[in-house]
Amino acid sequence: MHQYEIQEDRKVIIDWLRRLGLEFHTSFVVVNPEIPDHPIAYANDAFFEMTGYREEEVVGENGKFLHGTKTDATIGSQIREATASAKPGVFEIVNYRKDGTPFWNEITVQPLAFPEKSLRYTLMLQRDISDRRRAETLIDLQKETYKGIEKGHVIGMLLQNICETAESFFLDGVRCTVLLVDEAKRFQIGAAKSMPDEFLKEIRGLEVTPDSSPCGAAYSRQKPVVAENVFQSELLTDKQELLYKFGVQAIWSVPIFNGKDEAIGTFGIYFPQIYKPTDKDLNFMEEIASIVSLAVKFSSQQEEILRLAYIDEESGLPNRHYFRTELKELLKDGKEGVVAFISADEFIKISDQYGHRAGNDLCRELGRRLVLAGGAGEKLVARFSDARLSLYSSVPLIRAPEFLEDVLKSLREPVTIGELDLFLTVKVGVAIVTPAQQNAEELVRCADSALSKAKERIGEAVCYFENEQDELMMRDLRVANALTVGLKRKEISVFLQPKVSLESREIVGFEALARWKSPELGDISPAIFIPAAEKNGKIRQLEQHVIEQVLAWLKKRQDQGLGLRQVAINISAEHFFHHSFIPHLVDVTNKFGIDPKWIQLEITERIGVVDIDTASKVFDQLKNYGFATSIDDFGTGYSSLSYLQKLPVEEIKIDRSFVSHMDEQGTRAVIRTIIQLADNLGLRAVAEGIETEEDRTQLLGMGCTIAQGFLFHRPMPLDEAHLL
């Protein structure tokens, strides 16, 4: 074919594409892949409208003129390769409009072949997907922020990541800030890494007023404020020299709100050129600000819960919850060591004579000395109760006597109380940590028992707990053997303890509790036979037995036309994660003809540490089938807040260990925070272990509405509960 004929054919094809472009409203370009630089042979009006370029600026050019700083060169190479090899494909890449605005472009590469003319072109459909990518980014950013909180990342790092993500969607050279407002109504830097230090010095501590800046105005007015040209803004007349120095020509700012619709700061964007936002831009900024709000809110709540849960506010020492939790972690190393309880005989006299504050000061001073005693090494010191301090050290057992003597020596020095120097009479109870004894709760019990013996002696005393390991092992073995037989004989019975409305005392539900009276061993505590069932692989069988008894009781009431109330059943982690858990639960519920809504599965918060992703899937399945769910022992583990956001539960139970120490100021603060957290997340908070009218009054005052405990009802057999 002659050259002029090829040229004529090209004109015909391009003319055909041009006519197609008039009807085709989707942006597209046609590229000539037969020329090395793959120039654009044709672009339709929709492309010019999307990019802001004119036809004479596009035709004959390689598509790289759309690339910029944020463009992924790897994706660009993939598009070029698909064009050259005539392979179709879909690619997402950041391109730039003529005004410098980046946008996400979905490019669909489609080869066009004209065999009869021996010609080929490549059609590239172009679609602006910035809105979709912004929405996806907001979701991903929220997930990243939650993960950062649960991993303990500092709030500044989380906020900086939010700023950098927002910057990627605007002009090159854009800089973002998160400015938080303190109690004195002054700006403090939440995140502003991309801003110059000199600029930050001007901002940090600046008084927040309606006319101090766009950020100050946004905070004060509680709505977005835009200065699209800072040199014409009345808000910036005294800062134009500074803005000019740092190349800031436009500032947009939106307020950041807390959960009470009160402004707590601002999210601002600083542009290197005069720039006016679209409605979508402002909506995006407000979405970013809401994620900042979540980060600040949950990070502060996480810190507050951990602080209140693990620090004795009166002495500043770690408390018993911290000691127990940390001890479990430290024992995982399998090291030898000692757990000791320390008490001074004079504590009560000092508190009575000089006041409770003097007792707190005494504990603080003794705690300081314990931290320093015995030299370097892994050590844990806490205030376990008003008068008792707890101590763990990974000292080798061969050095334990020497270590304890150093501890006593440090406590023999007089303590100044008021104007008096007092010498203390110290009692110490010690439990030995060995490879065979690594149970934290058992070690705590042993050390406490040893302290009781030490208190029976006159003067300074150290008592070691006598080894009962062999006796304990034999007891566990007897219980395990009897349990196997007991499950076959159906000796395990179910008692129900009512949950009540704190205000009306009306029963609103029950908790099912397993009870065992063995013909051979007598009454066996759940604290003994449930761990034995877990240890010997019988826990699923035991819990299935409880479920069936509860369903049979509900069916009896249903058949007699009596009202039904929801019954909570405790489920172990092993059973919860077992593949047969949900199928068996659904089958047996259908068998008895009970609506799943009357069954609540109560799971200990430890499952949040085991496998949060699988746990979330199981909870979703339970919810889909109509079962209710609850988190037991809330607040006693490490990751309460982090997993609570991910699990679709309806209820959290405040552990009885908090309620039983509600007279302590720090514990009350923990309970109040948990109730508030539950309310914020739309959950029901249930308090366990209510024994006095004072407990009831305090919990009502803190906003708790449901509870269970001996004040209202003790656990009762099914026949007795049937009469309620």
UniProtKB/TrEMBL annotation:
Residues 476-724 form the EAL domain. It holds the Pfam family PAS_9. Residues 40-67 form the PAS domain. Transmembrane segments: none annotated. SMART domains: EAL, GAF, GGDEF, PAC. One of its GO terms (molecular function) is cyclic-guanylate-specific phosphodiesterase activity. Residues 335-467 form the GGDEF domain. Residues 89-141 form the PAC domain. This is EAL domain-containing protein. It comes from Planococcus maritimus.
